[in-house]
Write a structure and sequence with these properties.
Blueprint: H1 2-17, H2 22-36, E1 51-53, E2 56-58, E3 62-64, H3 75-79, E4 85-91, E5 104-107, E6 112-115, H4 124-133, E7 139-144, H5 155-166, E8 172-176, H6 191-212, E9 218-222, H7 230-241, E10 245-248, E11 269-272, H8 276-290, E12 296-299, H9 305-314, E13 318-321, H10 323-328, H11 330-346
Parallel strand pairs: 3-4, 3-13, 4-7, 7-8, 8-9, 9-10, 10-12, 12-13
Antiparallel strand pairs: 1-2, 5-6, 6-11
C-alpha cells in the first residue's frame, strides 16, 4: 500500500518534471526521491529472481546504470526503490564541471535522451565519503574515468587513482572507456589502448586484494558503435586481458534514430528507445564471441518489461535501466520485476547461448 502511494506521488510529479529544463528536473527528482525515501516499502523480491554473477549475489537482475547518481549522493534513496544494484559515477580523480550547458536534451517523441555531459562530478574523494556513509545493502558498482585535461597518454594514471580509492567500498568497478563526451576517450576501448588501461588496473588489484582481503571484479563498458569487425577483436582482448565482465552498451553517437528532431551539430550520446535494437545486437554478438560463462551486464533502451526480457534473452546476465527510469520512474522497475516473476515460473530465463 505504501509503495503504491509513493509510486502514485512519483507519477503525479513526473509530468511536471518533464516540462522543466532537464538538468534541473534531474536534480529535483533526486531530491524528491530523497524526501520520499522513508515512504518506500518494497516487498522482498521472489527468491527465484536472485542471480549469482561476478561472484556476487544480486536480489534480482535489474539495476540502475551509471550517470544517474554521479557522486553517490542519492545511493540510499535510489536503493530504497528496490534496485538490486546501483552503479554510481562516472567519477574522475579531480572534480570537474563537465561540458558547457546546454548538454542534456530530451527527445520525448522518440522516448530518448541525448547527453554530452562530459563526466561532470565532484571527484573521487567526494564519492568515497558518500559510499562510506551509505547504508544501501544492494550491490554497489562504481564507474571510473579520466579527467578531461589528462592527456590520453597518461589516462591509465587517472583510472588507477580512482580504482585504488574506491576498491574497498565497491562491489565491482566499471572502466568507462566508451563515453562519447570526453575527447578521444573511445580510442581506449580496443587494442593497445584497452591493454594500456586494463593491465595496470589488474596489476594494482593484486596488491589491493591482499591489502583489503577482498576481490573486486573489474568490468569494461563498451560503446554500441563498434563495427561488426571490431566487436570480435574487442571480445578476444577482454578474454585475453582477464577482465571479469563487460557492460554493453554505452550511448551511441549515431543520431539517425531520431532524424530531424535534434540538430546534428549538438553531438553527444543517444540513449533510450532508439538504442535498444543496437544494444541487443551487440550483447548477442558478445555472448557468441565470449562464450556462455562470461558475465555481461546489458543496458540500452530498456523502456519496458518486453525490452528487458529481450536484453536478457540476447545473453545478458543482468540489466540496467536509465532513460526508461527518467521517463517512467519506479513503475518501470516494478513492471520488469512482475514480468520476470512470471517468466521464472514458466520457463528458464538463462541466456540462449547457455
Amino acid at each position: 500500500m505504501i509503495r503504491s502511494i509513493a509510486s502514485a506521488l512519483a507519477a503525479v510529479a513526473r509530468p511536471a518534471l518533464l516540462r522543466l529544463e532537464p538538468e534541473l528536473a534531474h536534480h529535483l527528482a533526486l531530491r524528491g526521491l530523497e524526501l520520499m525515501r522513508a515512504h518506500w516499502r518494497i516487498p522482498a523480491p521472489a527468491p527465484e529472481l536472485a542471480v549469482t554473477c561476478l561472484g556476487l549475489r544480486f536480489a534480482h537482475p535489474v539495476g540502475l546504470a551509471a550517470g544517474f547518481d554521479k557522486n553517490g549522493d542519492y545511493l540510499d534513496a535510489l536503493g530504497a526503490i528496490g534496485f538490486s544494484h546501483i552503479e554510481v559515477g562516472t567519477v574522475t580523480p579531480r572534480p570537474q564541471p563537465g561540458n558547457p550547458r546546454p548538454r542534456l536534451f530530451r527527445i520525448r517523441e522518440a522516448q530518448a535522451i541525448v547527453n554530452r555531459m562530459g563526466f561532470n562530478n565532484e571527484g573521487v574523494d567526494h564519492l568515497v565519503r558518500q559510499l562510506e556513509r551509505s547504508t544501501y545493502g544492494g550491490v554497489r558498482g562504481v564507474s571510473i574515468g579520466k579527467n578531461a585535461d589528462t592527456p590520453l597518454e597518461r589516462a591509465e594514471e587517472d583510472y588507477v587513482t580512482c580504482f585504488r580509492k574506491v576498491y574497498a567500498l565497491a562491489d565491482y568497478v566499471a572502466v568507462n572507456v566508451s563515453s562519447p563526451n570526453t575527447l578521444r576517450l573511445r580510442e581506449l576501448q580496443s587494442g593497445e589502448g584497452l591493454e594500456r588501461i586494463v593491465t595496470p588496473l589488474l596489476e594494482e588489484r593484486v596488491r589491493l586484494s591482499r591489502e583489503h582481503g577482498k576481490h573486486t571484479p573489474l568490468l569494461v563498458k563498451l560503446a554500441p558503435d563498434l563495427s561488426d569487425e571490431e566487436l570480435p577483436s574487442v571480445a578476444r582482448e577482454l578474454r585475453r586481458l582477464g577482465v571479469d565482465g563487460v557492460i554493453a552498451t554505452n550511448t551511441t553517437v549515431q543520431l539517425d534514430g531520431v532524424p530531424g528532431i535534434l540538430p546534428k551539430h549538438h553531438g553527444g550520446g543517444l540513449s533510450g528507445a532508439p538504442l535498444h535494437a543496437r544494444s541487443v545486437a551487440v550483447i548477442s554478438r558478445l555472448r557468441s564471441e565470449l562464450g556462455p560463462d562470461f558475465p555481461i551486464i546489458g543496458v540500452g533502451g530498456i523502456m519496458s518489461a518486453r525490452a528487458a526480457l529481450e536484453t536478457l534473452a540476447a545473453g545478458a546476465n543482468l540489466i540496467q535501466i536509465y532513460t526508461g527510469f527518467v521517463y517512467r520512474g519506479p513503475d518501470l522497475l516494478f513492471e520488469i520485476l512482475r514480468a520476470l516473476s512470471g517468466e521464472r515460473r514458466a520457463v528458464s530465463l538463462e541466456p540462449s547461448a547457455r
